[in-house]
């Protein structure tokens, strides 16, 4: 198994620079920030956080359930003439096939590609089993989607002695019980744990300890930072910013001038700092999802097919959160980055898939035909009326954090 202690030469050089008094000091644990009632001068709790991310989840479930698909390039969704790929197996990814890609493009890149229809009811059932495994090790679980979540294991409920051991135990349970693989990032904050989970994919673990955080972040491409999409990455490149070290080298004023509201996040993250807690019960104001397409969508048929896929994804999230809301919004970003939104509010609130589908399709139809290619499509349900159920609870039915054990090792 590969771990984060085995860094690249560039990271070793960053550590050497740090020890010599260079640009990469240890993460600062005192910051002008208020978290969980602490004053701005109090250091945050040293958390142990795991980000678990299933490997090619939809495709892996299909390969697990149908032996004939194993070892073959597979796409979930996208089989229709103008359909869009929802997920791709690792065998398909070798040919450049990826999610949100039009099926026709995927087939062109991989002529032997197999297509299967998505089975969201099966993926939801597997996700419930997955979260049952998480709950054995912590009650502080923040789901991000069906196949990934943050876990705060600072309390070490299972008594395994280290966050890495907990991550390995979880991955072992997933492999034995679900016959699937997962990758995990282990660190002291959410940003680094999430990035780390992608370092040794598939089926790997990557650990970044507190004394390694700033040096690790310094080596990251700037596009790995949250919110840095193609357009922002292009702007960064024009400013000579390619890596986390380049971001760190800028003043806060410079970042504010060029990146606005993202400046404070970039300033802190480039120093390995992220004090957000894992929240087991996040109060949502809206639930939605969007997809950016590698090839612009321009025909009515292509946009309708793409919308159906987004309806599937967003309704699954609505259903999982037991939510209902009064406003459905469609978001469209054109090839020239012009963005528009259209919304419709109703009473009584939307509480069935049929109602959500009807409103979503109506909003799209009102925009057709589009005047230019569409690169992003999204849907959101807002004005929510029911609170989100806790992702996981203890026997009392209340989300629990357990005692903090700052001695738990990484």
End-to-end separation in angstroms reads: 16 Å
Strand content: 15-25%
The H/E string reads HEHEEHHEHEEHEHEHHHHHEHEEHE
Using the coordinates above, name the CATH class of the largest domain: Alpha Beta
Numbering strands along the chain, what is their spatial order in the largest sheet?
5-6-1-7-8
Name the CATH architecture of the largest domain: 2-Layer Sandwich
- The helix-and-strand class reads alpha+beta
Count of spatially separate domains: 2
CATH fold-type name of the largest domain: Alpha-Beta Plaits
> Spans of 5+ residues with little confidence (pLDDT < 50)?
1-43, 387-406
Helical stretch tally: 14
Approximately how much helix is present in the residues?
25-40%
Mean pLDDT: 84
Assigned CATH superfamily of the largest domain: Reverse transcriptase/Diguanylate cyclase domain
Largest sheet: 5 strands, mixed
Number of strands: 12
């Amino acid at each position: 198994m590969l771990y984060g202690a085995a860094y690249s030469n560039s990271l070793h050089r960053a550590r050497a620079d740090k020890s010599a008094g260079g640009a990469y000091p240890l993460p600062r644990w005192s910051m002008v920030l208020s978290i969980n009632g602490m004053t701005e001068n109090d250091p945050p709790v040293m958390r142990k956080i795991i980000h678990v991310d299933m490997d090619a989840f939809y495709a892996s479930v299909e390969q697990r359930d149908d032996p004939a698909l194993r070892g073959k390039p597979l796409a979930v969704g996208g089989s229709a003439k103008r359909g869009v790929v929802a997920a791709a197996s690792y065998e398909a990814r070798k040919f450049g096939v990826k999610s949100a890609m039009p099926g026709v493009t995927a087939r062109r890149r991989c002529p032997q590609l197999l297509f299967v229809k998505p089975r969201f009811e099966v993926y939801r059932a597997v996700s419930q089993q997955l979260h049952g495994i998480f709950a054995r090790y912590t009650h502080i679980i923040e789901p991000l989607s069906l196949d990934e979540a943050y876990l705060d294991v600072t309390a070490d409920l299972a008594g395994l002695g280290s966050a890495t051991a907990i991550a390995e135990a979880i991955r072992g349970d997933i492999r034995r019980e679900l016959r699937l693989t997962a990758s995990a990032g282990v660190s002291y904050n959410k940003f680094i744990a999430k990035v780390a989970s992608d370092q040794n994919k598939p089926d790997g673990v990557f650990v970044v300890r507190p004394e390694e955080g700033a040096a690790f972040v310094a080596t990251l491409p700037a596009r790995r930072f949250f919110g840095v999409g193609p357009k922002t990455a292009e702007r960064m490149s024009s400013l000579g910013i390619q890596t986390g070290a380049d971001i760190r080298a800028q003043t806060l004023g410079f970042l504010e001038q060029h990146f606005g509201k993202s400046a404070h996040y970039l300033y802190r993250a480039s120093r390995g700092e992220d004090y957000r807690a894992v929240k087991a019960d996040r109060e949502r104001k809206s639930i939605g999802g969007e997809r950016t397409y590698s090839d612009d969508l321009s025909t009515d048929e292509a946009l309708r097919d793409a919308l159906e896929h987004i309806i599937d994804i967003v309704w699954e999230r609505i259903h999982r959160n037991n939510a209902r809301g009064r406003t459905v919004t469609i978001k469209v970003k054109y090839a020239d980055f012009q963005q528009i939104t259209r919304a419709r509010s109703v009473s009584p609130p939307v509480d069935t898939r049929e109602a959500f589908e009807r409103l979503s399709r109506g909003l799209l139809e009102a925009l057709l035909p589009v005047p230019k290619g569409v690169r992003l499509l999204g849907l959101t349900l807002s004005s929510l009326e029911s609170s989100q159920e806790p992702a996981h609870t203890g026997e009392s039915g209340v989300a629990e954090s357990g005692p903090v054990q700052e001695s738990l090792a990484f």
